[in-house]
Design brief:
Elements: E1 3-6, E2 9-12, H1 16-27, E3 33-36, H2 40-48, H3 50-57, E4 61-62, H4 67-75, H5 86-95, E5 101-106, H6 111-122, E6 127-132, H7 139-147, E7 153-157, H8 162-170, E8 178-181, H9 185-190, H10 198-202, H11 206-213, H12 218-221, H13 223-237
Parallel strand pairs: 3-4, 3-8, 5-6, 5-7, 7-8
Antiparallel strand pairs: 1-2
Helix pairs in contact: 1-5, 2-3, 2-13, 4-13
Length: 239
């Protein structure tokens, strides 16, 4: 699998088919692993925080989920194929699941279960062996619970950076399987949050739709221009 260095993180240069194939191959590996899906906010945090940078770079697959990372790749002359939204990756994994066992972990009370219900309606043979909400205080208890499940794929939807820190902490305790940090994907699968209309997706302005629907995201959206500025500084000033 080809990777490209975008400022300080190694990003997987994959399309949706390649990403899915790589994740399925990790399911068959003798050890556990995790996948991250950085947008500009996550990538900027990795630039500012060395510990978080290490967590991102230790992931087995790093999916560019956000136009900011793609723009940055062009600025630093290491162009990626394109962005791959976490919700699209999740949908493809579920569509091609076969006999693989899934766990939905995260989101608010009842959301993971509702997401599982909706997915089962679409794919009656899907194996979602456990749903766990994202409200907990003790990481160790949840890690122990996940380790006992023997899942192939765990959707970890705790929001960034919590989900990335959790996966990095948990990976050594799991015997096998792949954890994927997917932010708000369970909310979308459950239907409690709507995916951006296709025109916004096509134009790579999903962030604008999200801000319109959830104005509180405006503060977080400020990370996009900040990361672009970071890429420009890296390209022209090498800082």
């Amino acid at each position: 699998m080809e990777t490209k260095k975008i400022i300080n993180i190694n990003v997987s240069n994959v399309d949706i088919e390649q990403a899915t194939e790589e994740i399925f191959s990790l399911c068959d590996a003798p050890e556990a692993s995790y996948v991250v899906t950085p947008n500009a906010e996550i990538a900027q945090r990795a630039y500012e925080d060395k510990e978080f940078e290490e967590i991102i770079n230790n992931a087995s697959v790093v999916i560019p989920d956000g136009i900011g990372v793609i723009i940055a790749s062009k600025i630093v002359k290491n162009k990626l194929k394109g962005k791959l939204a976490g919700v699209e990756l999740a949908a493809e994994l579920l569509r091609k699941a076969g006999s693989r066992k899934f766990v939905f972990f995260g989101a608010g009370e009842g959301v993971a279960e509702l997401a599982a219900q909706k997915v089962r309606e679409k794919y009656p043979d899907i194996q979602i062996i456990k749903t766990i909400n994202g409200y907990f205080e003790n990481d160790e208890e949840k890690i122990k619970e996940l380790a006992q499940l023997d899942a192939d794929i765990i959707f970890v939807c705790l929001g960034a950076p919590k989900q990335e820190y959790f996966m990095a902490k948990a990976v050594s305790s799991l015997k096998r399987g792949v954890m994927i940090g997917l932010g708000g994907t369970l909310d979308v699968l459950a239907g409690t949050v709507k995916r951006s209309p296709k025109i916004f997706v096509k134009l790579n302005i999903e962030w604008l739709y999200r801000i319109t629907m959830q104005p509180k995201r405006l503060i977080r959206a400020g990370k996009l221009p900040k990361y672009i500025l970071t890429a420009l500084k890296y390209r022209f000033l090498k800082k």
